[in-house]
Amino acid sequence: MKKKLLIVLLTAVVILSAIFNNYRTKIRWPFRKMSFLFPFSNSIKTAEQNAYLDLTEEFESKADNFSQSLDVYKALKRSGYRLTPVSVKGSKDDGHVIEKSNANNFASFSLKVPNVVHYVFLGSDLKFTLVNYLSYRSVERFIQPEQIFVHGDHVPSGPWWNRTIDEVRNIYHVERNSSISAPNGQRYKYPAHISDYWRTEILLRFGGIYLDADVMVLKSFKSLRKYAVVMGRENSDALCNGIIIATRGAPFLRLLLEQYRSYKGPDEIWAEKSVINSDKLARIYPHLVHVEEKSLNRPNWKERAQIYGGRYNWSQNHAVHLWIRLWPEKEKPKRIEDLFNKTTTFGEIARLILFGSPEIRNNFTKAAQTNSSKV
User: Fold this and answer.
1) CA-wise closest residue to 317 among 285, 339, 346, 281
2) How many CB atoms lie within 10 A of CB 179?
3) What is the residue-wise DSSP string for 101-127?
4) Phi, psi of 150 (to 5 degrees)
5) CA-based angle 278:281:282, to the nearest 5?
């Protein structure tokens, strides 16, 4: 009789523990710390739940103030970064309009991605070009971010940068000192791997939208900002990290970042961690990332001739990645006037960004002539 009663009691405890664990992982339960009442609750969690809670634990203490978690400007300042306003128009240096979230709890990731854009500009030999100018202009026209943060070891310069800060609002330079070594001490094989690490770490800590400086935005990202993480497919077995939209503390970003603890130094493959493994992780943890199959990175780098030499139907694209470093030198744009009547994908999207319409412009308007004289 006593054995039967003991079995019944143990069964009841296990069932109650399962119910307790289910509610605890779905909502921010006020009695979350009462786990000692249900000793089996932790042991019966699924592997996904274990990983999920472990990855978000350090962010939960700051999850109560949602508007504060969206204010990347203030978060960067609190973290000790030196922010230099290089183009501040229409906002005060100490305050910004932050979109209010309707999220009920942080762990659900229904919280919107902050409407800010991050670029990485790293290396004294890197030039700010016409393509970079068009990228910033496209962000201003279609995303209309609260701020644009340029992370790097120096402020860009040159005629196209000067024109950019004259025409685009709320650009801040975030001073960062680059490291030549990965977290495990291995020296980075390519400078691009430093940028790969930075962009992931920036979004993990602060959230927002990361863009490579040759990405042209073609429509609002608002519909994509409801997901924890968004990446675009590059090809059948790879995602591209040239565009990442993410909430602060997203577990998928932590998984990406943890790879750098096993960086291989001289044996590291160019796109293994940033592109190939992003796809592998997305297939293992599809609930942690939303993949845009065509709207962010098509045409892909293998199809790039459709950008500078053909006409791709980009009407459904949120953005087009130009892959500019792979273009033939003769195809790279030199003057803005050359884009007015260029009958290619690049010509069309450049005119959309500059004038709001992809239509060919055979004659310079007075405004266009005035603008082109700046460079």
Assistant:
1) 346
2) 12
3) P--S-GGGT-SPPPSEEEEE---TTPP
4) -105, 105
5) 85
Return the residue matching tokens 């978690």.
69
* Residue ranges of E strands in 218-284: 229-235, 238-246
Of 107, 102, 103, give the one whose Cα is nearest residue 23: 107
Residue pLDDT, tens place only, 154-164: 999 999 999 99
| Three-state SS sequence of 59-80 | HHHHCCCHHHHHCHHHHHHHCC
DSSP bridge partners of 85: 172
Beta-carbon count within 10 A of 266 CB? 7
| 218 and 352 Cβ atoms separated by less than 8 Å | yes
Q: List, for residues 87-97, the tens digit of each pLDDT value.
A: 976 544 443 44
Sole residue written with tokens 């390519």:
190
List alpha helices for the chain, DSSP H: 2-26, 47-56, 66-70, 72-78, 130-138, 159-167, 191-206, 251-258, 277-284, 305-308, 345-355, 366-372
Strands 82-87 and 171-175: antiparallel
